[in-house]
Amino acid sequence: MDWVFSAAVALVLLKLAAELWLAALNRAEVRRHAARAPEAVAAIMDEATYQKSVAYTLAKNRFGVGEEIFDTAVLIAVLASGMLPGLFTRVAAWGANGAAWPGALAILLAGLALSVPGLPFDWCAQFRLEAKFGFNQSTPGLWVADKFKGAALALVLGFPLLWALLSLVKWLGATWWLWGFALLFTFQLLMLVLYPKLILPLFNKLSPLPEGDLRARLMALAERTGFAARTIEVMDGSKRSGHSNAFFTGFGRFRRIVLYDTLLAQLTPEELEAVLAHEIGHYRRGHIPKMIALSAVTQLASLWAVAALAGSAWFNPAFGFREGDTAAAFLLAGLLGGAATFWLSPLTNRLSRKHEYEADAFARDALGGPVAMVGALRKLAQKNLTNLTPHPWFSGFYYSHPTMLEREAALNAKAG
Ligand SMILES: [Zn+2]
Question: Is residue 204, in this structure, part of any structural domain at all?
């Protein structure tokens, strides 16, 4: 067996080993606390809710471990089988010699085919795991429709983009990745603007928060904090899940704040103000341009890597592809990239957690104290059965938000 292939498999297995180990650490930590909850927990959850959150965390953990092992086995089997180069050769024959579109199509077909084995896991996560803990609101019909829409969207958006990128390779040669970056980055900015307008509505209904006390109150808060919202939107998240959330999308003139209907049902007006102030905090502290800049750097590095790998004599052939086939290098980078970037996730999550602390502090200052924000976080933890005692290494690796107790401590620390 080729050493490049063996090294790739070793990287994939190394990531799996790290994930299984982190999951085991987290299970042990949660069980250790389950017998006697830390004092701070009592203020957040009653004993019954806490025990339910422990059971939910452990069930999700075990499910995740099974899924991870399965996904890894499928990936290695597919890479070893030679199926992918076979697919590429067949699809390439459909186009004229030198055409860029068959490569784009082959990448998308491979991606769709590779997503099929994981579908039963998706199904069980929704209709067994989430249902068991009372979160599932979706129906089999809706679930199937979502999958079809997702696949159609991947084709409709992915095909022209990949076709354009691969055309740049043909036209520009070695420097294609620089121009490819300009194309990809423009596409990303466009998607930030279009996503809430064109894509989100395919899956969910967005409606402006109706006139009334709550709206007046939230608009006044937005005004006061320098956000000047034109509208606050409500999304029917309850269509699929009882989990609640709020998020911020777009940038500049196109910024919008979306609250889940589940959140509106769960929080008091004061707590909703705190959540809105937190989201506005992300905007006012400049987190959005920072994250866009970070993703630009990542894109540039990834495209350079694809160009370098496609041009190398050792990468593509190790997996049965032709040297210089950029489409194949794109697919392989997509399949194997996670095994490398996984090790960077503690860093990116750390930056994200820093932003969350800043947004929390912004909300606290905007509301004149930590009470409403702490109240909102506590209620969200109860309703979502959040794990209150993750292992520090687990949360360090995976959590984009600080843990509930960390956020509460930070909110109270600088207050008063
Ligand atoms: Zn946030």
Answer: no
